[in-house]
Every structure is written in structure tokens, then in C-alpha cells.
Specification:
The protein is of the alpha/beta class and 217 residues long. The protein has one domain: Rossmann fold (3-Layer(aba) Sandwich), CATH 3.40.50.1240. 39% of the residues lie in helices and 13% in strands. α3 links the parallel β2 and β3. The two termini are 32 Å apart.
Length: 217
């Protein structure tokens, strides 16, 4: 099985600021969210063999908290946490740190139609995100058929993985909101990875509703 989780809340998440590659820790709410997600996975009887994380500290903290909660399911060995830069969040370039409610016109245009409007110059394109997401998935495809693997990372790269594993999505994941500590799971076996399905809903703290008001989704 392949499991995927978005990290817990940070201060920038709470303030609705573009976070991207900025390396910020979880806030108290995010720590609590990660611990609750770990408990839910443990209570569901899910045994994780290894965790892959983005190197950014919010994803690493989430991975470490999940390991603490899930270690009891694997008493014979410590669950390893591995990192890969292909799991980094999208690079917003000069737009990092801007608020969703005060984006310049070119970013508003991009956010209003991700599929048809290209990313502004200076930030990573969604096509590039899907490409590196796919490259990572291919690198673990065989081992995902033999182990239960958990990915701890970020909203946009997580959407990139979901897009890669759902060829007929038509870009629909870009428009959906992934709450903090939202979990998806996909059956794996014989080199095949099924289309992922949401296992646990994430926490939006009203952010999803405010984004809908800003971008009219």
C-alpha cells in the first residue's frame, strides 16, 4: 500500500500565505493534527514499513510524529524516515510569502484556472511538479508493491502525485483543497499502483471556504 499525507499546520498556513520552499516548523495546531492523524492510522491497524518525507522541516516533523504513533505496530524495528528532494513543495519564486487575498493579477489569473493558465514567470510550473512527482513514484514503484510506504509532504506536490496516478483526472486535483494532515491511500502490487482514494479528510480551519470566496471555485 502507498499512503500519502499533507503535513500539519504552520503559521503561514494559518495566515493563508504562500509557503512553497520556505522552511517553517509546525505550529501547536499542526503538531496536534499530526498526532491525531498518527493515532487514526494506528487505530485503523495500518502498519507502515517506511516513511519518505520532503526535507522541509514541517514535513519531517509530521513524519517523526507519525512514526512515534505508529512505532508500536512495528515493535521489532524502528520505522525508517527517508528524504527525497523530489518531494519538496512547489517553488513559488518571488511570490513566496504573499497572502492569498493580496496576490498580483498574474497570480490571480493562474489560481483561477490552473489547467489552462500557465504559472507566472519565475515560479515552478505544475507540469514540472507532476514530472518530478512521477519520477519519484517510478523510483519506488516496485518497493511499494512489497511494503507499506507513507509519504509525508506538501499540498501541491501531493496533488502532483495524485494527478500522476490518476491519468484521466483532467487536472481536477489542482482545484480541490487538501486540508492539513489529509490522507490518501492506493493499493499496490506487481508494479501497479491503483488510483488513490481519500482515507481521512484533512483540517481546513475555514481556509478552504475563504479560498473559495477569493477564487470563486
Amino acid at each position: 500500500m502507498l499512503y500519502m499525507i499533507r503535513h500539519g499546520q504552520t503559521a503561514r498556513n494559518k495566515d493563508m500565505l504562500l509557503q512553497g520552499r520556505s522552511d517553517l516548523p509546525l505550529n501547536e495546531t499542526g503538531i496536534r493534527q499530526a498526532r491525531e492523524a498518527g493515532r487514526r492510522l494506528r487505530e485503523s491497524g495500518i502498519r507502515i514499513d517506511e516513511i519518505w518525507s520532503s526535507p522541509l522541516q514541517r514535513a519531517m516533523q509530521t513524519a517523526e510524529i507519525l512514526r512515534e504513533e505508529l512505532q508500536g505496530m512495528s515493535p521489532d524495528r524502528e520505522i525508517p524516515i527517508l528524504t527525497d528532494e523530489r518531494l519538496l513543495e512547489i517553488d513559488y519564486g518571488a511570490y513566496e510569502g504573499l497572502g492569498f487575498g493580496s496576490l498580483p493579477p498574474e497570480m490571480l489569473t493562474f489560481f483561477e484556472d490552473f489547467v489552462h493558465n500557465p504559472a507566472p514567470e519565475g515560479m515552478e510550473s505544475l507540469q514540472a511538479v507532476v514530472a518530478r512527482a512521477g519520477d519519484f513514484i517510478e523510483s519506488i514503484r516496485e518497493r511499494a508493491g512489497e511494503k507499506n510506504i507513507l509519504l509525508s509532504f506538501h499540498a501541491i506536490i501531493m496533488k502532483g502525485v495524485l494527478e500522476y496516478l490518476t491519468p484521466d483526472s483532467g487536472g481536477s486535483y489542482w482545484y480541490g483543497f487538501l486540508g492539513n494532515c489529509e490522507v490518501y491511500a492506493a493499493e499496490t502490487g506487481n508494479g501497479h499502483i491503483d488510483v488513490p482514494a481519500r482515507l481521512f479528510a484533512g483540517v481546513s480551519d475555514g481556509i478552504a471556504e475563504r479560498m473559495e470566496e477569493i477564487f470563486s471555485y
